[in-house]
Fold this protein.
Amino acid sequence: MNLPPGRHVELPGRGRTFVRELEGPPGASTLLLLHGWTATSDLNWFGCYEALGRQYHVVALDQRGHGRGLHSRKPFRLVDCADDAAALVRELGLGPVIVVGYSMGGLVAQLVWQRQRDVVDGLVLCATSRMFIRSFKERRRFILLGAAAVASRVLPRGMTAETIARVVSARSTAGPFEGWAVDELRRHDWTAVLEAGRALGHFDSRPWIGGVDVPTAVVAPMRDTMVSPRRQLALARSIPGARFHPVQGDHTVCSTHPHRFVPVLLDACADVSARCAATTRPAAPQP
């Protein structure tokens, strides 16, 4: 597996995170990739890096508590992830970027726009929604995650990660990538990851998502059982001018079937990039 070059980056006043970067063609738009819950940038985007890097400057970070991302003793908050992302944009001198978020990363992308509008040129929101809880069954799932997060704080250091990695390994269908995937999972701060699951349950952007004023695309797996396609369509309809890009697959289509996901993602990024360029292009001189 060929992965882009990676390095650690210190975010002033926040901590150290891990970043992968592809330069892309000269003058290309910059994509900031934000991965989903329990994943890392590599687990989420490994099937997408090469194709995206041929057309865009690509930057991907491990979000706090995940993989080699920023580790903190503070309880996990999605707003901190958003501020981490904005701090990275500023630290690397990237200027406004197109934020591409998958699942949890899509929630963080929405928050980056809400909290740090100056770093956002456009949004590509994948397999995500305005909120993750609607039913009693979903609410119970997130309550259990919160209880697990509390319990993990009293377990011996490292036990949580090893136990979860063993369970994932026993159930994995990742084939030749199984060992690599389990190694990625062992890098997690699982207390933070479980707290992130609880944070997903409290997220609700419905009061403000209609104010998004940047070009936006929503990429929706049409067989998603984690985030209903209806909720993903509702997200697109809530954002003025947002365009809907369906893809055939379930919630993990980005990594399990990248041959389906990548062409749709490229279309969505091209759509948003073109509209961003059109809004920043100088007006033609009057005759």
Remarks:
- The chain is about 45% helix and 15% strand.
- Strands lie at 6-11, 15-22, 30-34, 57-61, 97-102, 120-126, 216-221, 243-247.
- Residues 258-280 form the longest helix (23 residues).
